[in-house]
Predict the 3D structure of the following.
Amino acid sequence: MSPEAECARDADKLDCAMQAIEYRDQGHQNVQSWIDTSVAALTTETAKRLAEEIQRTGSLEWLAHALNGGSASG
């Protein structure tokens, strides 16, 4: 697999994991296996580090970060 294809595949898996985390944060149940499967499919170290971070933080924190223009404080 080319590096570009590997990056695109990991980006897709990260997107799936993020979507599942958002659903979990909204109160949906039974999404942990979706998160686990998406994260387990990651191949690059960068994607694995990103997955750790998205699991450590919640989707509301992602939103706050985005609304603040990417800055750590408001």
